[in-house]
Write a structure and sequence with these properties.
With about 350 residues, this protein is α/β, with parallel strands linked by helices. About 45% of the residues lie in helices and about 15% in strands. The chain folds into 2 domains: about 170 residues, Rossmann fold, CATH 3.40.50; about 140 residues, Rossmann fold (3-Layer(aba) Sandwich). The protein is globular. The model has no long low-confidence stretch (mean pLDDT about 95).
């Protein structure tokens, strides 16, 4: 395994401090978010790419714990079709790492014109998104040089956890404040389990990445990272969708990478999926899931015991490490994947 340092590797290591700074900045906004929330009844997320994967986490979190319907927008309804939709009573939450993606900024403006109130979540402190949203939730990830998002993604998840608290989720904010320390513990480990999974992935052409509920966002983001930086044909799927047909692609040459919190209502199903994949003769690896999932997998990366609602903020970190190390093992530069840039305009 090469020891060459990449920006991506450095930025993975910066995540605990980025999360601490972000929480220090955003937790005081809870009363302001609550006041805006009282004017709305449901949430519409506007995002693309990694930010869209973060929105999946936000959607599950708000529906499960804030008692509101939350959905993901189709920006082309605004930018391509120019349709008018009644968004009275809707809180439109636009998520953009840079705050400068025109499609996202334009769709948020469209939502406001249709009657929505707006929140912008971005790492771009002085950006069109912050200037036009009713509330700007500016993450404090600092500069991110690698194209694959790492600390900007995890700080978006932290912002969404704060949003859920502001919208009335009956959750303990002190648990959220423990997340940076938990990720410190993940990063402090030698990484033998990560290296072992990377060694098994060298040479494969495809993989299936799966999780459910809160962890579904992690599966989507992990698959995206493997596609972006390692050029792997990685499919991110809910295990419910996987069982409806695509499980046929999992075989000896196509491993499964499963992710789950160490406890929660989706863990048993994830363990059952691991057992089924293993019985079919396919390699199966895990991030999280405690001893129950580890016992059903060939290799696993243990995770701290965070509650399910916060586990995705930490679960993505080993997937980022796997991506960065696999890219370098394959001779690719994880910082500059071909054909990609930090800001994508569509």
């Amino acid at each position: 395994m090469t020891t060459t340092t990449s920006f991506m590797r450095s930025e993975i290591a910066e995540q605990p401090d980025a999360l601490r700074a972000t929480l220090d900045t955003l937790l005081p906004l809870i009363p302001e978010i609550a006041a805006l929330g009282r004017q709305t009844r449901q949430v519409l997320f506007i995002a693309r790419g990694s930010s869209d994967n973060a929105a999946v986490y936000g959607s599950y979190l708000i529906q499960a714990h804030s008692g509101r319907l939350a959905t993901l927008a189709s920006p082309s309804i605004a930018t391509t079709y120019g349709a008018k939709v009644d968004l009275t009573g809707v809180l439109a939450v636009a998520i953009s790492q840079s705050g400068r993606t025109e499609e996202i900024v334009d769709t948020m403006a469209w939502a406001a014109d249709c009657g929505a109130r707006t929140i912008g979540i971005t790492n771009g402190a002085d950006s069109p998104l912050t200037r036009t949203a009713d509330i700007a939730m500016v993450t404090r990830a600092g500069g991110e040089h690698a194209v694959p998002a790492t600390k900007t993604y995890t700080t978006q998840l932290a912002a969404l956890a704060v949003l859920a608290l502001g919208l009335g989720a009956g959750l303990d904010r002190t648990e959220l404040e423990t997340v940076p320390d938990a990720i410190d513990r993940v990063l402090a480990r030698p990484g033998d389990e990560v290296d072992a999974i990377v060694e098994r992935l060298v040479g494969v052409q495809g993989a299936v990445v799966s999780g459910r509920g809160m962890a579904f966002s992690t599966a989507l983001e992990a698959a995206l990272k493997l596609k972006e930086a390692c050029y792997l044909h990685a499919m991110g799927l809910s295990y419910a969708d996987l069982l409806h047909g695509p499980i046929a692609v999992v075989d000896r040459a196509t491993p499964a990478l499963l992710t789950a919190a160490n406890s929660g209502p989706t863990l048993d199903g994830t363990v059952a999926l691991a057992e089924r994949v293993s019985a079919a003769g396919a390699p199966v690896y895990a991030v999280g899931g405690g001893s129950a999932l580890a016992g059903a997998c060939d290799l696993s990366v243990p995770m701290p015991d965070l509650p399910e609602w916060l586990a995705p903020i930490a679960l993505i970190v080993p997937a980022q490490q796997i991506t960065e190390r696999l890219a370098r093992s394959l001779g690719y530069d994880p910082d500059s994947p071909r054909g990609l840039g930090k800001v994508t305009q569509t």
